[in-house]
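Internal ticket #5521
Category: modeling
Description: The requester needs a full-assembly model to guide mutagenesis choices. All entity lines are attached below as received. Residue total reported by intake: 1197.
Assigned to: D.W.
Attached entities:
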Amino acid sequence: MDKTGIREAIRRLAGRRIEGMHHNDFLLTWEKTAEELAAVFDVAEILRAMRAMDVSPRLYDSGLAISIFRDNSTRTRFSFAAAANLLGLTVQDMDEEKSQIAHGETVRETANMVSFMAEAIGIRDDIFLGQGNAYMREVAASLDDGFRQGVLPTRPSVVNLQCDLDHPTQTMADALHLINHFGGLDKLKGKKIAMTWAYSPSYGKPLSVAQGVVGLMTRLGMDVVLGHPEGYTVLPEVEDLARKQAAESGGSFQVVNSMAEAFTGADIVYPKSWAPFAVMEERTKLLSQRDSEGLKELEKRCLENNKRFVDWECTEEMMKLTRDQSALYMHCLPADISGVSCAQGEVQASVFERYRIDTYKEAGYKPYVVAAMILLSRLKHPADALMSILEGERSRCVR
Amino acid sequence: MDKTGIREAIRRLAGRRIEGMHHNDFLLTWEKTAEELAAVFDVAEILRAMRAMDVSPRLYDSGLAISIFRDNSTRTRFSFAAAANLLGLTVQDMDEEKSQIAHGETVRETANMVSFMAEAIGIRDDIFLGQGNAYMREVAASLDDGFRQGVLPTRPSVVNLQCDLDHPTQTMADALHLINHFGGLDKLKGKKIAMTWAYSPSYGKPLSVAQGVVGLMTRLGMDVVLGHPEGYTVLPEVEDLARKQAAESGGSFQVVNSMAEAFTGADIVYPKSWAPFAVMEERTKLLSQRDSEGLKELEKRCLENNKRFVDWECTEEMMKLTRDQSALYMHCLPADISGVSCAQGEVQASVFERYRIDTYKEAGYKPYVVAAMILLSRLKHPADALMSILEGERSRCVR
Amino acid sequence: MDKTGIREAIRRLAGRRIEGMHHNDFLLTWEKTAEELAAVFDVAEILRAMRAMDVSPRLYDSGLAISIFRDNSTRTRFSFAAAANLLGLTVQDMDEEKSQIAHGETVRETANMVSFMAEAIGIRDDIFLGQGNAYMREVAASLDDGFRQGVLPTRPSVVNLQCDLDHPTQTMADALHLINHFGGLDKLKGKKIAMTWAYSPSYGKPLSVAQGVVGLMTRLGMDVVLGHPEGYTVLPEVEDLARKQAAESGGSFQVVNSMAEAFTGADIVYPKSWAPFAVMEERTKLLSQRDSEGLKELEKRCLENNKRFVDWECTEEMMKLTRDQSALYMHCLPADISGVSCAQGEVQASVFERYRIDTYKEAGYKPYVVAAMILLSRLKHPADALMSILEGERSRCVR
């Protein structure tokens, strides 16, 4: 996208109804309007194009972006860091091990204590079903309270960096990858995407990517097929939502119990392991009871059950079933690649290798998606600000 | 405070005799003159007002602020990070676990090694009685040596982020909260503040807040009452100092062994647990001997002794004894709230809840106090620099 | 160096043939031409002089510098942080404990995932013989691939922050210290430097400093003597290289098995412990086999063997053998100082104390060397950019 293209994209953004994004959080894609989702895509692309031209979209001279990672992370951690840095914010990590949180401090208090000079708070909390998203909302409510009562000079925006329900920075990056791959948001209508379970020798992987993908792609008029072995269901609420959204967007949604069926005629395949919803519920319960014997037993049982479905692997044979035998393969990474990162896993090595660079590009949209979410929540008139940044041509670097 | 108010505050600052602060450390409030303390309050308020107007008080285009936390921290860590960021400095944490310090390296050496491009060094070292402040002075002396001998291009300023003696960033924030609450520094004269011990189910909490509060508030002409059960004394030197300072400032200082007596007629109450001075001495000795049996025995003995004083709780009943039954409740947070963070603790839940937002605001001054301490130690003519920043109106953010 | 001096240095830099440095890595000094090494010295001195004048050489408005430390580090970590900050980059640490790397992810993938907005990647990986430098090259090749295939908008530069073969940021800082000490790069010709083993009560120290010193100083026309007890050899390839380089540069290289012989007539001594090459090979093998019994046995054997050479200590007696009894003592720090950091170690306390400030200054060049390596790899026309920075006189700080 050249300067003319960026101007055009900014004008398109200016026409969108996105007042609701200002000083608001990004917790679930399905809470956002179609216009708001489109605005995120617009801004992510504008920022990416600006950076390619070495125009700096630095909004802030100073200010903090707080990160709270309750689970390990590489990609998302670096995406958040890159996004914050691009906008001029400094990341301060809230490392619960180095804090006094264990002391019995309330979420309400911590949320305010870390936010005196914060513009954004990114949170990953994906381990406990029923808890991650609830924690984010508790933080958000605490920030509302602190701002209303004069504790905070501004209300920082919360960005969901993966919870038990959704992984919006991932799925929005996935969608942006598709938009670029197929040549536009409107080109996604009628495309078939197979979001399927795949075998993995590990256990307890979150459901949020699968849920997030069907929760978002059904908004975009796509034919979404969720495929998994019997029993590997996702949250019923998300299935209901997907069905309803598909009807509204002119797409479709179905659940099948065969990988081959899901792959047949698909334009896009997204094979990825997850733990069944019911297992995650049981696991959450055992974890809260600190029942380590029960947890071990559950893990053993699950891994054995998983083994019944080792044929849920994205092989060359499976890929032959897809449209023109050449569906686009997607993954949030890291993938369990058979013979590379494990003996047998989600995807055959030759398939992964062929699409490896595509998956890297897919991941490469995430920093811009995060930056777009932050920017849209901070600026009242994002299009005006972006136009003035573009015409100001502040250089990101000395040449 | 509007722009006119800021100009006025800067002019007031310009009239203060604070030459001694330039390239000097902030280790103990009682080493600073009244003018110097007032300058910190001035600058903290100026910075806070500038930020509220989105004028950026960024002093540095680049430069490091080093943090050395030898104990867990949330509030102070984030305050230091926010202060550094506001001034344009980047925090580099000296994590002793990831360093080669265990190797037997001298403090003298480490202090220089981390300081080649540092402007400020914040240190928390509050665990060992007789050691924390001494460590800070050893760092400071090492920096003097390194600067004098041409190792360091500038002499970074050391800021005490809590030691065994004092917690100046906390107590200065506390005082600024009082100044804003009561409408001016002069309004604090004659106000009664009850700094009291309170029961907590935990053990070994530092004495530095209690010592810091009596060490500072007696400077401000306040009637300071230190209340604790028999045996829970603070450092004798600090008591002597408080007595002497109170006499000089026209305030008063007394020690009482009854919470009710301390609270009676108080304008402000600050109930907070700490370990008796003698226990901290014993603990420091046992720790240095790595006597884990002795430590366990000491902890058990202390917790049992603490239990004799569970009635040292800031209850609604106690609050009724205060002036107009409505003293301002203060706490450095996190508080041990009965029924919230523990079964029985320092403060009754309904009391804490009524003052919760006040305690959050109290904490909210800390980033500005830290920034003021750094700024005043770096600039030879702080008032001139602040005026030029104000009139320059460099924006902190794009709107 | 004043402004005129800086201009002169920039003009000298402009005359150097250093096209090969642009978008290239800094992995081993012996892969660089003499002109390229000289350019690093030039730029480091230019940056140091600019900073002393408070002219900010900030190249970047935003951008990340990634650090990957697979071993503990203080000096190098802070040097990298300071260098990045000086150039306007923000350090994002790739902490393998907090990432999903253990998951079986490929180096190829991780290298791309952390690099979407990175300009430089600093890596320390010095524990395993045959692995550290290989890892850096694997990262570099992955970045080449990612950039070529459109995953990365730019190819970040890899800087070796210590590997199994070389420690170029250390040795280049060492050389810059010598240049300043003796008054110019040309003054080093014919100077005798004794890089010797020294006794230490610890075990398993990397060979990279010793190898790096002989690998670099033989380029500079120096008379390099490598001294160690029999069996404490460094990598044979590095010895061959040193011999060849010395012949080319008009210097000399010899290996001796007596500390006294090495010290005799030396202008510079660099006594430092390391583990013999053969031991490191055995250790690497045992580590890869997770043979903890074998490792303990090896450590015991080595420490016992070390004890046979406790007289390899840099004492006052030894120093008397050097030129005019006053060779310059060097160390990469921290040193094992007898009676200070250990009972008996590499250097006598009185010797270390006399040269302590010199070793601190030696360390102080490292941030500028790292910054120079990054700058030279990022800028196509570094001299032009530096001249425009100098004349622009962007202030690093408010006065």
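Resolution: model delivered.
Comment from assignee: The two ends of chain C are 21 Å apart (CA to CA).
Ticket closed.
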